[in-house]
Amino acid sequence: LAMLQTPTSFRAHPLAMRFPSVRFLPSSAAPAVVAANARIAWMARAGNMEGARATFEAMPLRTTASYNALIAGYFRNHLPEAALGLFRRMPSRDLGSYNALISGFSLRRHTLPDAAAALASIPLPPSVVSFTSLLRGYVRHGFLADAIRLFHQMPERNHVSYTVMLGGFIDAGRLDEARKLFDEMPDKDVVARTAMLSGYCQAGRIAEARLLFDDMPKRNVVSWTAMISGYSQNGKLNLARKLFEVMPDRSEVSWTAMLVGYIQAGHIEDAEQLFNAMPEHPVAACNAMMVGFGQRGMVDAAKAVFERMQEKDDGTWSAMIKAYEQNEFLIEALSTFRDMSWRGIRPNYPSVISILTVCSALAILNYGREVHAAMLRCSFDMDIFTVSALITMYIKCGNLDKANRVFNMFEPKDVVMWNSMITGYAQHGLGEEALGIFNDMTIAGMAPDGITYIGVLTACSYTGKVKVGREIFNSMCKNSAIRPGAEHYSCMVDLLGRAGHVDEALDLIKNMPVEADAIIWGALMGACRMHKNAEIAELAAKKLLELEPESAGPYVLLSHIYTSTGRWEDASKMRKFISSRNLNKSTGCSWIEYDKRVHLFTSGDILAHPEHAIILKMLEKLDGLLMESGYSADGSFVLHDIDEEQKLHSLRYHSERQAVAYGLLKVPEGMPIRVMKNLRVCGDCHAAMKLIAKITSREIILRDANRFHHFKDGFCSCRDYW
C-alpha cells in the first residue's frame, strides 16, 4: 500500500478507520502510481530531468515514493538546490525521504556536512541504510577517519556497511586494516571477497590475491575478471591470458579487461588480434582499442574503429579526440569536438583536457573561451586537472590576466598550477612577476619540483637576471631535494649565453655532471648567433650533428652567423653541405584564428591563402608606412647572398608578416592581433612588428617557438632581450 497525504475523497478507504494517521491509495490507482514512480526514476538515471519533472507534475496522485524518486533524480543530476526545495515542500516524509537526502548530499564533497546534519535530524529511528549512505559519502571523498568513526557508532551493520568500509580501507591503500575487517565480517559474500582480491592486485600483492581467489567458495565472472585484471596490471600477461582461457564464462568486461592489459603493456598487435576475435565489440572495448591505436600513432586505425561503431558514448568521442591531439592532428581534434558538441553529447574530463591542449597548441583563444564556458555549464571548474589545463590554455593564448584570475579563484592549488603561472610569466618576459609567484609558492608551503626551477631559471634567462639565476641554481644544488638535470643546466647555459657570457656557458657544459644533450648545445648555439661568435658556434654545430644528424637547424643558424658577419663563401659552403646531407629544414609558418577558423601562412608562399590579393595589398601598404617611419630591412636575416631588393622581397613574405597583415584586415580595432609561429621570430620581423604596432595603433601578440612578444606603441615586452 502506498502512503501519501490524501485528499478528502480517500478518507473512506476501509483501512483508514484502523490507521487514521496513514493515507491509502485505492487499489485501482496503485499500479499507475507505481509505474509513474518507476518512469521518474528511469528518466532521472538517463539525465532527462525535464521529463522526470513533467511526469511528476502530471500525476493526479503522488505518493511519498514519488517525491523520493524525484529528489534522488535531482541529486543524481547535480541539482541539489532543487532536491532540497522539493524535500521541504513534501506534505509528508518517510525514512526513505531522509535517506534520499542523506545519499544525495553525500554525492558531493562540500555537502557532506549537510548529509551528516540530515542524519542527525531524522525524527524517526535511522536505519542501517541511513548510516550506510553517509558512510559511503565519507569513503567516496576520502574522509576515512570520519568513516571509521561513523562505522563504529552504527547501532547495527549489514554486509553492505562492511563492504563500503572495506572499500574505504582498500582505496586508502591500508590493506592490512582491510584484511582485518574482512576477517571480522560475519558474512563474506562474493562482492566482499572480490573487493579484497582487487585491493591486493592494486597493491601489487598478486600472490595473496591468487590465494584469496583460489579459496573463494563461489566465484562469478567479476571475480575472474578482477584476477585477470590484476595479473595484467602487474605485468603478468601470460598468467592473465592463461586464466582468461580457462574462464567458465566470459563477459564483455572479461574480454575488455584482457584487451586493456595488452594495451597498457604496449602490446598493440596482441590487443588488435584479441579485439578481432571478440564475439562482440562493446563500446568499452572499442574505446580502449582506440586509445591503444592513438598511443602508437595509428590514427587511421583508431578512426576506422570510431567510424564502424554504431553506438558511441562520451568515452568514444574522448578517445578519438585524444588520438588526434596526441598525434598533432589538431584541426581534426577540433572538428571532432565540435561534432560531439553539435550532437548534444556532454563532454567528459579527458575530452575537455584534450581540447584545451589543442587550443593551447594552436593559440586559439576564442575557442578556448567557449570550452571554458562549457566547463562552467558541466561543473568542471572545480576539477584541479581541467582547471590546470585551462590556466595553461589562457597563458599559451597570450591572455595572462585571465589565467591569473582563474589561478587566484581556485583552491587548493597544486604544484602544477603554480608551475603553470611561473612558466607563463617567464614566457611573457615578466621575470619579476614570475619570481613573485615563486616566492608566494614557498610562503604557501608548496614544495617546488624540478619543473618549478626550470620556470624560474627561464624567467631569469629571458629578463637578463644573471645574478638571481645563479643564486637560485646554486641554492638548488646545495639545499634542494631536487638534483639539477640536463633541463636545468640548459636554462643556465641559456641564461649565461644571452647575457654575453658565452665562454662561461661553454665552461659550464664542459664541467657539468650530466651529459650535454641537443637542447643544451642548441642553447649555446643560439647565444653564439646572438653575439656572433662563429668559433664556438662551429663547435656547437659539430656536437649537434653527432646528436641529431638529420636536423638542419644548427647549420641554418651557423649560416646566419656567417651571413651576418659577411662570410658569404662560408655561408655558401654551409648551404651546399645542408643540400648534400639532405638535412631536414623546418619551413616557417604562422597562423591566426579568425571567425572560428585557423588561417595558416607559410613563408614565401603568399598565394596559398584564398584571400591573398587583399593580403598582398596590405603588405605593400605596410611597406610604405614602414619606410616612412625610418625602417630599413636587415638583410643579415636572409640566408642567401642576393641583392638588397630581393632581400627586402624575401623578408616581406615571412609568415608572421602575412598573418599580421591578415589580422589587420580582419580583427576588429581595439582587439589584440594574436599570431602563432612555429619557429623563432627573426630579428628583422621583430623590428618591423614594433613599428607596425605603432603606426597602426594596434597591439600585436606574437608567440614564437620560445616565448611571447607583446608589441605595442613601438615597443616589445621582451625589451629587445630575446
TrEMBL record:
PPR repeat ranges, renumbered to this chain: 63-97, 127-157, 158-192, 220-254, 282-312, 313-347, 414-448
Molecular function terms, GO-annotated: RNA binding; zinc ion binding
DYW domain residues: 630-722
Nucleotide-binding recorded as keyword: no
Database matches in Gene3D superfamilies: Tetratricopeptide repeat domain
The keyword Protein transport belongs to this UniProt entry's keyword annotation: no
Any one Pfam family match given in the protein's UniProt record, by short name: PPR
Coiled-coil regions listed in the entry: none
InterPro entries documented for this protein: DYW_dom (IPR032867), E_motif (IPR046848), PPR_At4g14850-like_plant (IPR046960), PPR_rpt (IPR002885), TPR-like_helical_dom_sf (IPR011990)
GO biological process, one term: RNA modification
Keywords of this entry: Repeat, Transit peptide
Protein name, as recorded: DYW domain-containing protein
Species: Aegilops tauschii subsp. strangulata (Goatgrass)
